[in-house]
Amino acid sequence: MDLRVLESVQRRWTKRVTGMSGLNYRARLRVLNQYSVQGLPRDHPESYHSYMWNHLFKHIDIHPENVNLLDGTCSDLEAECARYEAKIAEAGGIELFMGGIGPDGHVAFNEPGSSLVSRTRVKTLNQDTIQANARFFDNDISKVPTRALTVGVGTVMDANEVLILITGQHKAYALHQAIEEGVNHMWTVSAFQQHPKTIMVCDEDATLELKVKTVKYFKELWSVHSKQIDDPVAFESTRHG
Amino acid sequence: MPVTQFKNCRILRDHELVREDLWVENGRIINPEELFYVQKRPPAFQVDCRGSIVAPGFIDVQINGGFGYDFSFDEDKTEEAVSVVARGLLAHGVTSFLPTVITSTPETYRKVLPRLNKRPGGEDGAGVLGAHLEGPFISREKKGAHPVQHIRPLEKGFETVKEVYGCLDNVAMVTLAPELENACDAVEGLTERGIVVSTGHSAGSIMDGERAFKSGARFMTHLFNAMTKFHHRDPGIIGMLTSKRLPLHELYYGIISDGIHTHPAALRIAYKTHPNGLCLVTDAVAPMGLGSGRHHIGDMDVVIEGERALIEGTDTLCGSIVTMDGCIRHFMHSARCTTVEALEAASLHPATALGITAQKGTLEYGSDADFVMLSDDVFVRATYIAGRQVFAAPGQAFIHEPVQ
C-alpha cells in the first residue's frame, strides 16, 4: 500500500473529521486496521501503531477502546487473526474499508495469489513489497520484516462500502487490471468488481494505462461524482458500482 | 491517575518547536502512545493552549535575591527570602533555581546553608536545586561587588573548603578562581561530591582555567564579568571557549544578558563561539522585581530607573535586576538566535550543566512536568510545576476541561 497516498487522504479526512463538531470520546467511530507487520514492536517508529498514532489517532478524540490493531508481536498469530475476525463481527461488520493498493494490485497484504475469499491471516510478503518498504528501514533489506498479519480479501468484501485510493503512474497498470480486466487473484483488488459499493479514487497519472474510452466515461460523470462529497476537489474519480 | 492533554500548542522537543500535544500524569510528562495502545485510557482533562509555545521551565543558576530580599545579607531571614523569591520567580517562567550566596564569613555560611534546603517546586514557588556559593575563594582583583575582607585563599585546598562552608549537603555549585594555589585540589574534592565547580571572579590565564577544567570544573560564572579581560595575546579564562585541549561539549558558562552587564557584541561573540554551552543567568540582586523608584535594601539606598538599578546619587550599577524571560528576549534580540536556541539556553543547557536532564530542562517522556506557556515573543502566559498551574498572567486563563 502506498503510504503517501493514505497519508494525504488521511490528512484531508482528519481535517474534516477534526473539524466536525460532535466527534468526541463518546462518538461511535471505531477503527480497525488492515494489517500489521510481524515482529515490529509497537513503539518502533515504522510500526503501524506509530504510523496510525501520528497520522490519525493523535489528531482526533477517539476512545482508545474503539481502536483495534492486529498485534504482530504476539506468540500465537493464528489465534490473533481469529480474534480480529471475531472483533469485526462483534462491531457489527465493517462500515467503510479505506485503503490503497500496491503496484502489483494487492489490497492490504493480500499478495498476488491470495484466495479471493480469504479471511484475516498471516501472509509472507513478496519481493516487490519488501523492496518498496526498504526505504523505511534505512534501505537495509535484511531489516525489513517478511511476514504480516492481514485482513483477507473476503473480509474486505464483507464491508458495506469499499474506498480504494490509487495515485501515481506506478499504480496505473494495477488500476487497469483492477477495472478493465477480469477478476483475478493475481491482482487482488480486482475482487471489488463483485462488490456492490466500491469507489476508486485516483489522479490523472493513475489513469495512464486505462482506455481513453474508460476515462472519458467516468470523467463525464463528474456531475454525479461531485454529489458524493461536500467540497469537490480537483482530482479525477473513477466510480465503480 | 488522571491524565491531562495540553492541545493546540507548539512544544520544544528535540531542538525544534513542533506542533504536538503534551501529555501529563502524576507530575510527569508521559508517552501518549503507551497510554493509548497499552493502557487504552483517554485523558481526563484537556487544555486548549491557544497556540502557545510550551518550553521546559527555566532554570536560573545564579540569583542573589529579589523582591527586597538578599540570600547573603538577610541571614536571619533565609526561609522568608527563599519563599518570597521562589514565588516571585514563577511569573517569569523560572521553575527551578540556585539561591546564590556571595563571599561571606564561615559564620554566615553555617547560619544560611542549612536553611537553603533543596526542595521541589509547586504552588508556593519555584524549586530549589541547591545553593550556589560564589566565593570566598576568589581573586581579590576581580571581586566585583564582593566584600574584599572576606575573600580568602585555599590554604589546604578542599580541606579549607569544608572548614569554611561547613556542611556541603545543600550545595549545588561553587564559584572559585582557578589560579589560586590548591584550587585544583578544591575542584577535585567538590566534583567528587557531585557539586558543579565554576571558574569565575578570576585574574587567571587560559591555562589556569584548563587545569581547573581537567580537575572537574565544568562551568564558568558570568562570562566576561569579573575575569581577565580578553586580550589577543592573553585571552584569560575567556579563551577556554575555544580551547583545543578541552572537550568543549562539556563546558558550560553563565552569561547575564540584560543588555547592560554584557555588551550585545560580546554576547554575540560568546554565542557564535560556543552556542551549546551558553546558559542565561540573571545574577539578580534584591531590588529585582520591586519596580521603579527608591528602595532601601539592607543598608543601601537604591534607585531603579527602567532596567537599571543604581546606588542612589550615583551612576553606579548595583547589580542586575533582569528577569529570566527578559534575559531570553534580550538574548534573542542581541544574538539574533532562534527562539529554540534562546529557550534552550534557559532550560536544557543549565540542566545539562547540573547533570539533571533526566528530570529537568526538557519535555521528554518521564521528565518532571515543569513547563512554561509563552507567546510568540516569549512573554510568559502561564507557568506549570509538576503539571499544575502555578502562575497565570492576567487575562490568561487556561481552563482544564474535563473530558466527557
Automatic annotation (TrEMBL), chain A:
GO biological process, one term: N-acetylglucosamine catabolic process
Organism superkingdom: Eukaryota
Main function: Catalyzes the reversible conversion of alpha-D-glucosamine 6-phosphate (GlcN-6P) into beta-D-fructose 6-phosphate (Fru-6P) and ammonium ion, a regulatory reaction step in de novo uridine diphosphate-N-acetyl-alpha-D-glucosamine (UDP-GlcNAc) biosynthesis via hexosamine pathway.
Keyword Cytoplasm: yes
An example Gene Ontology molecular-function term: isomerase activity
PANTHER family linked: GLUCOSAMINE-6-PHOSPHATE ISOMERASE (PTHR11280:SF5)
Pathway: Nucleotide-sugar biosynthesis; UDP-N-acetyl-alpha-D-glucosamine biosynthesis; alpha-D-glucosamine 6-phosphate from D-fructose 6-phosphate: step 1/1
Cellular localisation: Cytoplasm
Keywords per UniProt: Carbohydrate metabolism, Cytoplasm, Hydrolase, Isomerase
Predominant location category: cytoplasm
Top EC group: hydrolase
The enzyme's E.C. designation: 3.5.99.6
Catalytic activity: alpha-D-glucosamine 6-phosphate + H2O = beta-D-fructose 6-phosphate + NH4(+)
Record note on quaternary structure: Homohexamer.
Family statement drawn from the similarity comment of this UniProt entry: Belongs to the glucosamine/galactosamine-6-phosphate isomerase family.
Protein name stated in the entry: Glucosamine-6-phosphate isomerase
Domain Glucosamine/galactosamine-6-phosphate isomerase: start-end pairs: 40-197
GO cellular component: cytoplasm
TrEMBL record, chain B:
Keyword Flavoprotein carried by entry: no
GO MF annotation, one: metal ion binding
All copies of domain Amidohydrolase-related, residue ranges: 53-390
Residues annotated for Zn(2+) binding in this entry: E134, H201, H222
SUPFAM superfamilies for this protein: Composite domain of metallo-dependent hydrolases, Metallo-dependent hydrolases
Keywords: Carbohydrate metabolism, Hydrolase, Metal-binding
Top-level EC class: hydrolase
One GO biological process term: N-acetylglucosamine catabolic process
Keyword check for Metal-binding: yes
Top-level lineage group: Eukaryota
Active-site residues (renumbered): D283
Reactions accelerated catalytically: N-acetyl-D-glucosamine 6-phosphate + H2O = D-glucosamine 6-phosphate + acetate
EC number: 3.5.1.25
Needed co-factor(s): a divalent metal cation
Binding-site residues, substrate: A145, N225, A226, R233, H261, L317, C318, G319
Co-factor note (free text): Binds 1 divalent metal cation per subunit.
InterPro entries reported for this sequence: Amidohydro-rel, GlcNAc_6-P_deAcase, Metal-dep_hydrolase_composite, Metal_Hydrolase
Family as reported in the entry's similarity comment: Belongs to the metallo-dependent hydrolases superfamily. NagA family.
PANTHER family attached to this UniProt entry: N-ACETYLGLUCOSAMINE-6-PHOSPHATE DEACETYLASE
Protein name as it appears in the record: N-acetylglucosamine-6-phosphate deacetylase
Organism annotation: Amphibalanus amphitrite (Striped barnacle)
